[in-house]
Amino acid sequence: MDTFEQDVTLAETEPMIRRLAEKTWEASRKEARVARTVVLKLKTSGFKILTRSHTPHAPPSSCEELTRIALSLRERIELSPKRRFRLIGVGLSNFHDPADASAQPVLFE
């Protein structure tokens, strides 16, 4: 997650989401478990937390795919374009061991 010195508009979040998706992808490569769900978390300047998630048919297989999904989740934020955000997080959840189907908590970077 990143908290900003100055609040940003939704349109200004793309480079941050890309960077966070890369960090999340790198961290996920160290896990033996496989994450199925991509999560985008935003906190408004008024401290309202918005979370969007997507579980594709198959787990993300590349950093590019993870980034594309995270950016598409941003498009599902239905607020005024002038709304400002103070925090963004890109994470993975719904972890499964390849041999076990038990879910694990969300990992945010």
How far is it from the N-terminal to the C-terminal residue, by CA?
5 Å
Instruction: List SSEs in N-to-C order.
Output: EHEEHEE
Question: What structural class do the secondary elements suggest?
Answer: alpha+beta
Q: Helical percent range?
A: 10-25%
The geometry reads as: elongated
| Helical segment count | 2
Strand content: 35-45%
Unreliable runs, pLDDT <50, ≥5 residues?
none
Largest sheet at a glance? 5 strands, antiparallel
What radius of gyration results from the CA coordinates?
14 Å
Describe it for me?
Strands 1, 2, 3, 4 and 5 form a five-stranded antiparallel β-sheet that branches. Helix content is 25%, strand content 37%. Helix 1 (14-28) packs across helix 2. The chain is an alpha+beta fold and 109 residues long.
Please write out the topology.
Layout: E1 2-9, H1 14-28, E2 34-44, E3 49-54, H2 63-74, E4 84-96, E5 107-108
Antiparallel strand pairs: 1-4, 2-3, 2-4, 4-5
Helix pairs in contact: 1-2
